[in-house]
Amino acid sequence: MNYEHIKSTILIVLIALSVVLTWQLYTFQPEIALLDDTARYVPSDSLLAEYEERKLKHVIKPEQMIVHQNNEHVMVPSHDERFTKIYENLLRSNLSEIDLLATGPFPKELETGGVELIFPTAIPVDLFLSLFEQSEEEFMLALTEVDRLFLYGSPNGDVHMQILSIEEERVIELGTTLTSAELGLFLEPLDELIQVRPVLEPSSSYSTKLSADIYISTEPIQASRLSFQTSPLSTEFYKQTLFTDPGSVKYYQQSDGEDSYTDGNRIITMQNNGLFMEYINPVFIESQEKTSKHIVQGSYEFVNGHGGWSDDYLLAEWSSNDLRDEASFLLHVHGYPVLNFEGQGSMSLHISRSGNQVVNYIRPLFELDNAPIDVSERVDLPSGEEVLEHLNEQEFFDPERLNKLVVGYEMVTRTTSFVTIEPHWFALYGNRWQKVTFEEGGTNGLE
C-alpha cells in the first residue's frame, strides 16, 4: 500500500514539474538588446582602443554650399576649407528669434546675396538646434524638420539665417552672432569657386515661393582618381558588441561559403568575402512599442555607442513608418560620397529599427588608410549642364523623377587590401542612386 502511495506521489510531482517547465518554455522570450541598451556586453579596452565616438556635428553636415550674388551662383566644394570655416563658425554662433512666422520667399532675393546650405536629407529640428554650441535656451520653432539654410547680411552687420522645411512648406528666420564681414572674408576669392545654375523645373510639389532648386555646374569638373590601402575591422569586436552573451555565439559556414555567427537568435553574416557584414536581430513586431526617439538620433547613438564610424561617414537619408525606421550614413572621401561599390550598393552604415530595437545593421568591415597611395591622377568630367542634356536625350528619362545630380565615387577592390575609387556623375533618380554613363556604342544614360 505504501508502495502505491509513493508511486502516486512521484507521478503527481512529475506532472507538476512538467506543467511548470511547459509554462516557462511557452512564456520564455530571449533577451534582445535595445537600441539604447546600457546593459549589453562591453568589449575589452584592447578591442575598443581603435574605435572612436564622434560628435553629432561631425556626422550631420550640408552636402552643398551655394553662394548667390548679383544673380549668379557659385558652389563652394565640400572639401574646400572655406566650406568648413563657414559651417563651423555658424555652429559656434548664438541664435536669436527674428521672424518665426516668415512667409518667404526662400532664398531671400537680396542685392547683397547670401549663402545657401543644403542638407542631404531633412534634419529633425531638435537635432539641428543641438548642433549649435550655445546655451540651453530652447526655441519653439514652428517646424519639425530643416532642409536648407540661407545666410544673409542684415542692415546692422549681423548675419541672419532663413530655415526652410520643404515638406511643411514653411520658413522661419533667426539671428546669429556671425558677422557679414566674417562671412564675406570666408568666401574670398569667389572667382576660384565653381559656377552653377539651378535646374529651372523644381518638383510640382514645391511651393513657388519656397523653392528647393537642384544646382548643376556650368563648367567641367576635375576630380582625383585615388587608390588606398585598406585595413580589416575586427569581426571579434562586432561579435562582442552586438551579442549580449558573446560566449554563447557559434560559428557556421553558409551554403555560399560565407561565414556566419549566431547565438540562436541574432545572427551576423559575412558578405562579399568578408568585406561587409549584416547583423539581424529578429523581433516580434506586434509587441514592439514605438519609441519617441527619432531614428537619426537613435542610429547616431547606436553607431557612436560602439565607435563604429571608422572612416568619414555622414548622414545621407532616413525614413520612418509604422513598422520600421531606417537611416543611412554614407562614406565620403575628399568631400565626395562613395555611391557605388563594385557596381552594387553604396558604401554606407545602414541601420533599421523596429519599435525601440535595432533589427538590422549593414556595414563595411574595412577602413581606408588615412592617405591615398597616389593623388596625382586627375579625371575630367563633363559639366552638370552637359550631363542633364545627355539624360534628357534618353527615351525613358523623366526630369520630374530627378532628385539630385552630383559627382561621386565608385569603389573597386583590386586585392583584399587595396581599392581604387574613380569619380563619376551620379543621379538620384526615382529615389535610387544610378551612375551616368557616356559609353560609345554601349549603354548610355543611367546604369
From TrEMBL:
Keywords: Membrane, Transmembrane, Transmembrane helix. Signal peptide: none annotated. Residues 4-440 form the Regulatory protein YycH domain. CDD domains: YycH_N (cd15787). InterPro entries: YycH (IPR009996), YycH/YycI_2 (IPR042274). It comes from the Bacteria. The chain crosses the membrane at residues 9-26. Pfam families: YycH (PF07435). This is YycH family regulatory protein. It comes from Halalkalibacter alkalisediminis.
